[in-house]
Amino acid sequence: MSSTTSSSTASSSTTGTRIDPITASVLQRRVDAIAKEMAGMLMRSSRSPIFNEIGDLVTVVFDKHGNTLAQAEFAAIIAFGAHPSLEFIINYYGDDVHEGDVIIHNDVYSGGNQNADTGIYVPVFADGGLVGWMAAKGHMADIGGMTAGGYDPNAKDIWQEALRIPPVKIVHRGVLQRDVWDFIAANIRMDFVMEDIKSMIGCCTVGGRRLVEVIDRYTLETYEDHMNYILESSARQVRAEVGRWADGHYYGESWMVSDGFDSTKKYKIACEIEIKGEEITFDFSGSDDQAPGITNMPPASAKGAVRIAFLMIMAAGGINIPTNQGLFEPIKTVFREGSLLNPRFPAATVFGNQMCDEVVECIMTALSGILPDRVTAGWNKYLCTSTHGVDPRTNEAFGTLTVFQRTGPGGMLGTDGWDALGFTGTAGQMRAPDPEMFELTSPHFLEYLEYLPDSAGAGEFRGGMGTRTAWSNYGEHQHGVTLGDNVRHEGAVPAQGLFGGADSGLNEITVTYPDGREHLWGSKEIIELPSGTRMESISGGGAGYGDPRKRAVAKVLAEVRDGVLSREKAHDDYGVVIADDGLSVDQVRTTALRA
Amino acid sequence: MNIRIGIDVGGTFTDFLVIYPDGKRRIHKTSSVPSNPPLAVQIGLTEIAAAEHKSLEDFMAEVGLIVHGTTVTTNALLTRNGPITGLLTTEGFRDVLPMRDGTREEAYDNRLEQPVPLVPRYLRQPVGGRVDYKGDVLTALQEVDVYAAAEIFKANAVESVAISFMHSHAETSHEDRAAEIIAEVMPGAYITKSSELLAQARYYPRMSTAVLNSFAGPIISSYLSTLTELLEEAHFEGVLLLMQSNGGVATPSELAKRAALSLLSGPASGPTAGLLVTAAHGWDSCLTVDMGGTSFDAAVVKDNKPLIMTDGIIDRWRIALPMVDINTIGAGGGSIASVDEGGLLRVGPQSAGATPGPACYRRGGVNATVTDADVVLGYIDPDTFLHGQIGLDREASIQAIKNDVADPLGISVEEAAFGIYQMVNVNMATGVRDITVRRGLDPRDFPIVVAGGAGPVHAAAIARELEIPILLTPRDSSIFCAAGMLVCDFKHDYVQSSNQRLESLSDEYLVETWTGMMAEGRRTLHAEGVPDDAISYVPSVDLRYKGQWYEINVEVDPANLVSPNLAEFYASFHQLHDTLFGYSTVDMPIDLLNIRLTVVGSTPNDRVDLAATTPGSGLPEQRRRHIYSPLQRRMVEVEVYQGAAMVPLDEIEGPAIIELGTTTIVVLDEYNTIVDKNGSFVMYLRDQMLTLKARLDLS
């Protein structure tokens, strides 16, 4: 239909459209709504619980050059990983991109962030030309490789981890390439994965349709010029903010323990940040060399982790910027080739996304000196398990993530860490399986799932609490694999507290086999799980911020009353003496202790 | 005994719609009394009686039906001014409530505070005993734990208890026994069994709903007993019905049991009221939009029924009871406009509310708001706003928009105001689109019914966004919800979780489950005075493809209640899935998650006829003023009509303004507006005049 709102007075000239900031603002909302509608569709139509229950997916609207215009984020680390793959795809195909094409991609050596995070890319055409790209990317329940689910800490190269899919057209000019489709399906263990791919294509198709509607309404030129303006405006906003930060060089580091082969080996992740005027560079060259196994982070994933930390620092200043490409234009990242954060081909990399916690910790500690009111103390480095097998109730394959195991985020000035939130890489958007649904949909019995008392890192603003959980299985041919860090028996290095706050807690999973044998599950270890195995897990809390003795006494008392803080810890860490009734504070002794 | 009264208690006003046996109606408004809500009802009724020169008692003796909607529980929840509530959970799961679904509302904002649960941890008491997902008892209920918890509750002055155990959807005996013990030890305590309230799988949603129910229970109970007493004192001998959030009505005693259904019940009659407005034109479907000072509500009515959701959120907590799906977004007259450092305009979600309010209110607000933009654009007349009760300061609007938007963007005040207008319209249109497309519906298939003080100012522009050609604004939208209440049916929803593959579902089991629900529904409706011949049943099942996480509610023919035809279930599911998600997979097994039944009792059939009294006296004295024309992108001088004076079939051409006292209808250039036989203002796209007028059937 004809439009009343297109910028008819802001008429175009041969040199381009006059930019109307109002039209730009409105367009930004429209494009954002497209990404959200796509995500909604994908969540509701997909099969894998990793998609729809846990929300390990993202949908993105790109311009024709592959710049991110808007994204609907559930798993932040994937979200930012969709872009480098598209850059590769655009270079790879050149002009050979047509209306009705659908491209699938997962390969980490051509821009992917993790092989399990597979993307569908659909070019959008209007007025006879390419006008943009739609993408849906998510963590597939299986993507081939030597182990169901793709997580195998014994992997030493990329071929063992997954079916590598460099860009491939599975639909060409609207025609499904049945041979390619069947080839991919033949390499994936679970049939519903292909159904999920259909859902992804469906949501990209709808997104493309919506984009064309917007372009029809505004004209292509108006649309493109204004979207460029929006990208520039995000960049301007970031520049203005970074310009206010003190110039200089800042250093932070974090430690990862265990590479899947040597469970006590320590790896340093280090970041040197340079702020110069309105630009900021994150240089990770000081990080250790790449590991022999899976604990390597592809640059697409590492870049995503930097962006997550950066957005957290912006949000803490009350600055909300649409997450588009412009936002990151003033940000430079350096990852040394051959290091943990830019491994050489053909290194295995499936653990890379998990190293987001380390990257974020580096950045937060580095900037704590100049932005004490923005940074967050260390998030406990996340640990959970992924498990696959056959459900004896249906004789069908199942796969699930036990992401109800939740660690705590760090505290920050003015705010305690959110209890049992978990992993930085999903930035609080990863859903936990509902306890009943976990039992209904996989062969498990969940014994308990609750806050872990005394787990919060002490501080004036304490870390978020971790959790204690226990469950047992009755699946057949079942195996489980951990993907995480901070495991106590491996000698983990906890995430750092800030300004006198305590460090984060640690994690531990104790496995009891049906024969009574016990095993402490390593942080990156695949094990068989015979029917009747019991897992008992401790997930530690986040690190604290500020001197615990400055914490409001009433808060300490309330937590003792609630049974999440022991009287001993109240005394030792917080200098608060709780009376024997457990309901009141011994003011005199508390004052003396806190003096 | 034939007078009917709809009473809608809002935050500021309590609205009364009185309908007399001859169809005449009276609209009355009185100030709400937030500290004692029933008082406003009493005052209003007394005022109405006085207007009829009758005593309250004489007037009330003629009243046969009062339908009433209240926000008393919603307000108590939002202000956390409610009973001390305790919770019994399965041992090991006492933190399921605050953990919610494991996410937070903002991804990157580490400053965002966790919501404080309605029940603190020391009152969330774990109880031993375990039932598995099939409903088999694995370990017996540890009654000693229940007794111990009850002592703790008593010591802490707990008035209300929610009981929610793992898998109680499949086996209720542990919750039943625990409830007996609590009732024995704590006589008088309000008790909610999650299995009785909502027998469906998913622990957090069921637990959260049970807690909300126990929180709301004592509040609504005491409110209702006060109200009932007060009506009895006034010699009221008719029927009192309460609005529920599922869009149906119930008697006070039924609502008191399912108190959570009173949460968000306020606007739940709005969509049904929309049908009153569209009925004159033969539509059984519509969108309703309601724009007030701080928020914008959108809902869909399809085939005479408001759309229902089971994943509602209130105050950051899940409420999983079936509720009218009303999409609320933070866009209203008070929404604040600003320019970010990148040079983009933002509008909302921050709101100046009523205090300090928009800059033009001169109540201390300095930020530019949507209302300020409407004033600058001439859509709102500063002198006649809200019947002239609040004189608005146009200069203050100009100054605020200049400072906050125009100067930072380097554009004129007028352009800036129009920008604000566009932004808020796009936000609202997105809210409407969300609620339709996620159901696989096309908004263009529906007329829009517009309510709320700010609604008619923006509605035409929203409709343009959505390519909707027809909008209807009732003559007096303040009684919109009250009118809707009078036509809502009794409605009770039942659910039983039943996790199995559809192909293995036995007819006997299905019939047995539905028969049990029908019996309970009948019992409830009989107790509410509904005879058998007024009862109907709407059976449905929640289905999904094997391995999917989200189920789809599929309504099936009532014939299935007696002899199920599973082939119909399969066909309907595949078709609905295709509508919603663009594909279906015929050879994929289908899983059943829940069996549902909605039991409906029709209320008396003499419908509310909005046509009965339409005042008016021909085309009015005319005034003119300048408004902004989006089409011409400039201020233009237009006619200002007094809506009250317009009679059926009066028709005007846009651009024009229709003043209604409590609101203003902005008729954009492309539209005509004609008054229908109900007195509603029907705006339609002029370039489709022939088709639309034929469709409207204005005779």
Write up what this structure looks like.
Chain B: Residues 206-493 form the Hydantoinase A/oxoprolinase domain. Chain B: Residues 4-185 form the Hydantoinase/oxoprolinase N-terminal domain. Chain B: It holds the Pfam family Hydantoinase_A. The complex is a heterodimer of chains A (595) and B (699). Chain A is built from 14 helices and 22 strands. Chain A has 595 residues and is α+β, with helices and mostly antiparallel strands. Chain A folds into three domains: 12-234, no CATH class; 376-548, no CATH class; 552-595, no CATH class. Chain A has a seven-stranded antiparallel sheet, sandwiched between helices. In chain A, helix 9 (299-316) crosses helix 10 (356-367). The longest helix of chain A is centred in the middle third of the chain and has 27 residues, at 192-218. The N and C termini of chain A lie far apart (73 Å). Chain B is of the alpha+beta class. Chain B has four domains: 3-73 and 223-283, ATPase, nucleotide binding domain (Nucleotidyltransferase, domain 5, 2-Layer Sandwich); 78-215, Rossmann fold (3-Layer(aba) Sandwich), CATH 3.40.50; 448-482 and 612-696, no CATH class; 490-601, 2-Layer Sandwich (Dna Ligase, domain 1). Chain B has 18 helices and 35 strands. The radius of gyration of chain B is 26 Å and the shape is globular. The model of chain B is unreliable at 612-618 (pLDDT under 50). Chains A and B meet through helix 1, helix 2, helix 7, helix 8 and helix 9 of A and helix 4, helix 8, helix 13 and helix 17 of B.
Assembly level: heterodimer
Distance between the termini of chain B: 34 Å
Number of helices of chain A: 14
Domains of chain B (count): 4
Average pLDDT number of chain A? 93
| Distance between the amino and carboxyl termini of chain A | 73 Å
